[in-house]
Amino acid sequence: MSTALPRLEVISIGTRSSLTCSIRGNNARRASLAEGLAETLANLSNIIRRRKEIRLKARALSAESKASATVLALLPFAVGALLFFLNPSLMSVLLDDPRGRFMMGMALLSLAIGVSVMAVIIRRSLR
Asked: Which of 7, 42, 56, 111 has its CA 20 to 30 A from that of 23?
């Protein structure tokens, strides 16, 4: 893809080494090159603008998903505390009985697994 350089012709030599040159015969070629360059730059600016918009939308969606994951992770604790204050005898079974503590442990384990899966999904959605 080598392009031949245009031939320069000296039209006049001015004073103090000022040189006026002209490129003859390639006006149409230069105009088409300029149009192509302008179109390429316009396309590039549109692509950059769209990528920035997409990046901002992705940040907004990831912030929304992080907030949803936080609410889902804290909801069992809030409901448990509410039930404990409303009816302490109901929740005391979970704290006093070994089977209740086992169930609490399994609930915490499943909650931890769910939170970690949500974190992985959120991280992968940002790629």
From this structure: 42
Would 107 be classed as within a structural domain?
Answer: yes
22 pLDDT tier (thresholds 50, 70, 90):
very low
Domains identified in the chain, total number: 1
Specify whether the CB–CB gap between 45 and 58 falls below 8 A.
no
Q: Sign of the C-alpha dihedral, residues 10, 12, 14, 20?
A: negative
Residue 2 lies in a domain: no
In-domain check, residue 44: yes
Domain that holds residue 22: 8-125
Alpha carbon distances (Å) from 8 to 11, 34, 74, 76? 9, 19, 76, 81
